[in-house]
């Protein structure tokens, strides 16, 4: 992927110290249109084919974990425009320097009021929060202050997008890695939004006709986040190789260990991308139509998820196996390899990757 690795990496240490992506990094993100890469073309987005977008996200994460994660999560929230009312989607994506951050847990409420909803609650871990123009969220629907339940007895949950002007960012992100993501919490205090700002993340409820919006949401999450960990692990192995090469007397087994780790990671990576390309070909082969339903069959979905899990496992093994060869340099907090190591171990704690 042709990306400006120099600009990304030049700001990585500063972003970690600042606790958010630097203006130069944010400017590059907007200049490249990365946060609109998954938004529908009809709404002003790029609507990139998913395999192209995932490879791009991996390349950005390999340059810097925090930037890759913010781009991935915020571009992923931009994908929701394919489920919004078309007029609302166009208006949101047309926002200057648009950035949608958000959180998936339904930790708030949406009360029907007139032709819209009044939203109250608090949500955690919204990567890119300081640069967000809008926040996405899930909320439990209520009427008269009483939560609504579906036919299965479970609370009715709906997704919403809320302008940042109606949101209060709560600075809670204090992780030892991925500091530049500024993955803070946010609070909404009885903010009203029109019904057009609500949506359902369901292939049967798409408002854009492209195959991208009929790709299963959880599978999209798997491939994009696994690619981020792959990118960070590849960066770690590159830095480790430089450290080993510079040592006067590296351990005799170091080069073989690096080669084995790299081969295992690349093998898992190639399998994941082969299955992703196959899943995308299946999705793209179906007639384009809004609300047409899921475009990847269950068997291929399961195989691709397993490949993502295997890629994450290979990335974890590679980083764990090679770290001991890197000496004290890898333990120095201000070293590049230490930052990448901390970023990797923070990102890999995402709930999706739990054992």
UniProtKB/TrEMBL annotation:
GO MF annotations, alphabetized: flavin adenine dinucleotide binding; oxidoreductase activity, acting on the CH-CH group of donors
Residue intervals of the Acyl-CoA dehydrogenase C-terminal domain: 225-354
Keywords from the UniProt entry: Oxidoreductase
Keyword Oxidoreductase among record annotations: yes
Name recorded for this polypeptide: Acyl-CoA dehydrogenase
Origin species: Pseudoduganella guangdongensis
């Amino acid at each position: 992927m042709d990306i400006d690795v120099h600009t990304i990496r030049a700001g990585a240490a500063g972003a970690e110290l600042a606790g958010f992506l630097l203006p130069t990094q944010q400017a590059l993100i907007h200049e490249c249109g990365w946060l609109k890469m998954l938004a529908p073309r009809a709404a002003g987005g790029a609507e990139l084919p998913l395999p192209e977008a995932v490879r791009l996200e991996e390349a950005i994460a390999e340059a810097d974990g925090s930037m890759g994660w913010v781009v991935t999560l915020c571009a992923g929230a931009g994908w929701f425009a394919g489920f919004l009312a078309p007029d609302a989607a166009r208006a949101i994506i047309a926002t200057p320097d648009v950035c949608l951050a958000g959180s998936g847990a339904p930790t708030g409420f949406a009360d029907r009021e007139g032709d819209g909803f009044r939203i109250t609650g608090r949500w955690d871990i919204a990567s890119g929060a300081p640069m967000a123009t809008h926040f996405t969220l899930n909320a439990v629907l209520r009427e008269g202050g009483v939560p609504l339940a579906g036919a299965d007895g479970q609370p009715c949950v709906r997704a919403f997008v809320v302008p940042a002007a109606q949101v209060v960012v709560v600075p809670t992100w204090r992780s030892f890695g991925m500091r530049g993501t500024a993955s803070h919490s946010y609070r909404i205090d009885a903010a009203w939004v029109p019904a057009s700002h609500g949506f359902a993340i369901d292939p049967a409820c798409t408002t854009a006709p492209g195959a991208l919006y009929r790709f299963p949401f959880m599978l999209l999450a798997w491939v994009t986040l696994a690619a981020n960990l792959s990118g960070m692990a590849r960066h770690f192995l590159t830095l480790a190789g430089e450290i080993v090469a510079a040592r006067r007397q590296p351990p005799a087994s170091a080069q073989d260990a690096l080669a084995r780790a790299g081969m295992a990671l690349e093998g898992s990576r190639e399998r994941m991308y082969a299955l992703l390309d196959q899943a995308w070909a299946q999705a793209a082969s179906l007639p384009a139509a809004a609300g047409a339903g899921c475009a990847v069959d269950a068997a291929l979905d399961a195989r691709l998820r397993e490949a993502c899990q295997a890629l994450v496992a290979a990335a974890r093994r590679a980083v764990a196996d090679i770290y001991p060869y890197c000496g004290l340099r890898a333990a120095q907090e201000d070293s590049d390899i230490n930052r990448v190591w901390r970023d990797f171990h923070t990102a890999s704690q995402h709930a999706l990757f739990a054992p």
